[in-house]
Every structure is written in structure tokens, then in C-alpha cells.
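User: Sequence in, structure out. Go.
Assistant: Echoing your sequence, followed by the C-alpha cells.
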Amino acid sequence: MSEYHGPVREMLFVIRELAGLDRIARLPGCEEATPDLAEAILEQAAQLAGGVIAPTNTIGDRQGSRVESDNVIVPEEFKTAYREYQSGGWAGVTAPAAYGGQGLPFLLGVAVEEMWCSANLAWSLCPLLTEGAARAIEAHASEALRDAYLPKMVAGEWTGTMNLTEPQAGSDLAALRTQAVPEGDHYRITGQKIFITWGDHDMTENVVHLVLARLPDAPPGVRGISLFIAPKFLLKPDGTPGERNTVRPVSVEHKLGIHGSPTCVMAFENAVGYLVGELNNGLAAMFTMMNHARLGVGLEGVAVAERAYQQARDYARERVQGKVPGQKGRVAIIQHADVRRMLLTMKAYIEAMRSIAYVTAADLDISLRHADEATRALHQARVDLMIPVVKGWSTEIGQLLTSLGVQIHGGMGYAEETGAAQYLRDARITTIYEGTTGIQANDLVARKILRDGGASLTALLADMRATDADLARYPALAAVRKAHAEGCASVEAAGRWLAANHAMNPAVPGAVACSMLMLLGTVTGGWQLARAAVVASEKLAADAAASAAEKEFLAAKLITADFYAGQFSPLATAYLRAIEAGADALMAFPDSQF
């Protein structure tokens, strides 16, 4: 297995040139987010990710986790890595300063998070869930609960979870049965939760569970769900962990991948819980956590693909096999056209996915921090539109790219010893986490495009089409410009078709949703690569004295955009045709013939 190196140069390019770090640094509270600080943070994170966390990846895959005496035991190497992560203050990078965090923008946080996920996806899920739980507590809990739990979580001393799923209630949370009974200033929670990521472990002294449950007299369906904090250890008057709460891990799942991440069945047996937010409004509070988590899971698709790409690239440079026309003797397989096709496919898609995720993170920063309410609302609408694309498209493409990583290794990729297969196995969960691709697609079409009459999609198209004037200045980008224009036209046509047809047949939105998600991901990905090519063209023209390495880096942006435009942008037309086919054939097929 090759080493992992954080792609800091690539990340900084996206952060500065596409996501607009300069505009983020002008937001209230983000003044310290300078280019120098961004580079320093990313370089330090890359050292921790590559030197400390990445070596634990194979160990976690082979050892897994286990339950002993009502506690989950994880590999010792995980604990060592976590101690270095925690002591370095990494848990609080984007957390509020009021609770001990650094208060840095999400734009920097996602780049750091990507490196944790690339280094060891299974391990990284613990910090990811903790960060999301802390955000939900900050947004909805009482001051007393915030003061009791957030400083420890922001410091990384305690971790957090979210407990939603039950055996009979997966995505359909209306079927949730876990019950919370009032008792003085708290509640008693009873029920079983399944598929709880990092539901228990021995890396920290306490685990803070966010739990969805309903009161005995609660309204039926999702309207009757409330959110509670139920810590593993109840707090003593001085705020330190005391008596064990009656919540325990029953078992850990045996999974296809992410073996080092304990996916737990959790039993709440009259456990003490504290209400977060309003009664019967727990789902709204939990969605504060879930929307951030969906951005994070989309980033996982980028991260695991990046790790698979680095290993496949390094293997292709070293593996000598066969000959190529025009060269004497046997060559490294990176010289073979088909291997180059696969490597450049991986690289182009990764750069597109990363750009979409980082730009969305920047929109999130603006939506939360900008002084102008209308500007905040505009960027919040963009975040709402793009979150299902970041999550759904990036993870679907991540499956493709980790599979290509195995293919580049040939037969050695199918052997576990190389490590290539682990990335494919680990990445498989990402299309399922935090709502499957179908759920993301339905959210995109029904709740984001149709609900506002296509306004947010129209605004996105206006921004995308504005890039045409920049592309027109550079004849070398003619093919990229043409592909971008065709992609925008496909998105516009798809939006028109949805508006005209969704009410005629109730099955239409669900039938075409995945194609719409893949269309929007494909086109916005190409858009970001086109923007990168424009920036690179400007810099090459303006700085003749740039180093050879810098010129090569920038020239590669032009080639990558051109490759994507020729190989993947044409998929937009195919997705449009699939949308226009509607739902008739799909719904006409008899159940008996499946």
C-alpha cells in the first residue's frame, strides 16, 4: 500500500481561485482566514493525515472492533492517532470560539476533513459525527446543555453520535418507536437503535448520544419526534463523567468495509436523556446535523477516490509491463493509453467533485455569516440545491473511481495485500450514508427544484452561463466552452421538462430524479473545471516568470478540463434523454416479471 500525501497544492488552488477565500475572509469572524493561514493549516493537517492517521487504515481494516463487557474496543493505533488529533486542537477548527474552537470558515474545515477521510475513512467518521452533533447542540440545546457538553466536544475530549435508525424505521422515521417518558428535569429513554456509527468506543472518556424518540402522548408520524442528549456517562455536579447511563452497545455489525468503524446496535434501557430543542420538533433539530453530515459524506466520496488515485498512480509508475508503439523495451504501465485514460478519469472527476464540495462550503459560510440578509438567503438557497448533488453525485462517482483504482492494479488489485480493494469496499457505504442516492435525488427534485418553481436552478444556470464570456477569451478552450454551453442547455431543458410534466403523473419526479442528480453533478463538475481552466489561462498569460513546476501545474488544468469536456460532459445529453423518457415504461413493467 502506498503512502498518502495530502494534495495541498490542489486544495489551495480550489480554495483560493474557485471558492474565493478572499471573499470569505471579508465575512465577520473570518478575518484571520488569510492565504498564509490556509496554507499553514493544510500543510500541518497533511502531516498528521499522512504520517499518523494513514498508517492505521490497513490495521483497522484487518482488526475491526469488538464488544467486551458492554464496551466497544477499537485498535490501539486508532487511539494513538486520536490522541494526536485531539491534542493538536483539530476537533475545534470550525467550532465557535465561545466553546473553545478556532471559529475558522467551513471552507478550510472541509479541506482538513478531506484529508482525515482519505487517510482512514473508518477512523474519520468519529470526528465527523462529533462535529455534526456539536452543531446540533449549539443550534438547538439550552444554554445549560451547551455549556455542559460543547467545550468537551469541541476539545475532542468527548465524541458524539446520532441515533436515528431502528429495525423497523430506516429512512421512514415516522415508524420510529423509541420512547421518552418525562421524569423531573429529564426523560427516560427506552428503545433500540441500529447502524449507529461510532456508537461506542474506548478512545474518549465519554460519548454524547443524540437520540430521536417520541413521548407516549406524542402526535403520530414525524411530527411527534423529539431529540434528546443521552450521554454514555452521566455528569457529576462538577461536569465530569460519573455514573454509567443505561445505554450500551449490544453488538457491532460485520460489514463490507470500514471495518475499523464500530457500527453499533445500541440499547437504551430507561436511560436518562435531556431534551434538545422543542418537544415534537426533533427532526428539524436533527436535520441541522444531517445537512452538514451530507456535505461531509459527499466529501468522503472525494477523499476515498483521492486515496485510491494516489495508490493507482504510484503503482502505474512502478509496474513494468508490456510495450507501447514508438518506444523500445518494456515500459511502466502509466505509458499505456488505457491506463492513462483510467488515471485521468480519476483525476478529472476528483478535481470536479472537490471543487463542487469546496464551493458549496464557501456558500455555506456566506449563508451563515454575511451581514446582509438577502445575500445570506441567496447563498442558503444555493447550498440547499447543491447539498444533494455533492452528496449523491460525488459518492456515486466515488464508486466508479475506486473500482478503476482496482482495475489499474490488474489482478493485484483484487488481492487484499495491495490495499486497492479496501478503498472500493470502504467507499461503498458512502452512497447509503445519510440518505441513499435515491433519497438525495428525490430531495433535489421535489424539495429543491420543484418546490421553489425552479428559482434556485435558474439562478445557478445564470451563474454558470456567465462563465461563457471568460471562456470566449481563450481560443484554446473552445471545446470546453462548447461542452459547457451544451451542458447548461441540457440542465435548462431538464428543468423545463420537469416543470411541464411533474404534475401529470405522480411517479415522474421519483422516476427521473436520479438522472436529474447525475445531470446536475456532471454539468456543475464540468463548470468548475472550466472555471479552473480560465484561471490557469489567466495566470499563464500574466506570469511569464513563473517556475516550470507552476507552469506545468497550470497547463494541466487546461488539459484536465479539455479531457472532461470530451469524455464526460456529453453524458449530460444522455441524462436529459433519460429524464424526457419519463416514468411510463418504468411503472408499466409488471411486478411479477421482476
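User: And one key feature?
Assistant: The longest strand covers residues 263-276.
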